[in-house]
Amino acid sequence: MAKLLKTIPICAAVLGLSACIPFSEAPKSSRSNSAFSSPDARLCLSNLERAKISFAALPDTQYGGGCQAVNSVRLIDFGTPTSNLGPMTCNLASGFTGWARDVVRPAARKYLGSDLARIETSGTYSCRRVSGSGNLSQHASANAVDVFAFVTKDGRRVTVLNGWNGDSRESKFLRQIHADACGRFGTVLGPQYNQQHRNHFHLDMSPSRLNGNSYCR
């Protein structure tokens, strides 16, 4: 089995990021991590390797209050610089990198006339609850990412806030990648869902995805 731990620091490997989340603990090899003892977890890591994704397998971490990062990785390089990515479950990392590669990049060329240079997010793991609910958010399990904007190589910055109902090319681009995300993630929320999501896409690998269903709004 190929060595899973990559040694290139994330902030050096991914140029052009608007921010990086530091980690005080050096990543460990998955071979010493109980999170990768299950067949599903090992298969996910193998799939990332086959897709030539550069990543570091992270040790399981319990933060208290039900918040945790289990079966998680840190993405280092998958061909598209992306800001603020912290720990992500392996399944989320697989879904996100596939979406960026197979959906967002082609859509940027088709609708915006330029290659994708960067994706801007507000992060992944965050120990918080769903607004108006006592339930923990998928962010509390490092199983969600919020995407706010996309930057093309010709300098165009497309935000969910301004582009969803704005310039026709930007609107078509955003609506296409939102629709295509629905087949890749368990939950996809955007401006049509509520005011709290008017400025970003929430993408997560909630359990509904395991049943072949997704909640898309």
TrEMBL record:
<dbReference type="Pfam" id="PF06904">
    <property type="entry name" value="Extensin-like_C"/>
</dbReference>
<feature type="signal peptide">
    <location>
        <begin position="1"/>
        <end position="19"/>
    </location>
</feature>
<feature type="domain" description="Extensin-like C-terminal">
    <location>
        <begin position="43"/>
        <end position="217"/>
    </location>
</feature>
<protein>
    <submittedName>
        <fullName>Extensin family protein</fullName>
    </submittedName>
</protein>
<dbReference type="InterPro" id="IPR009683">
    <property type="entry name" value="Extensin-like_C"/>
</dbReference>
<keyword id="KW-0732">Signal</keyword>
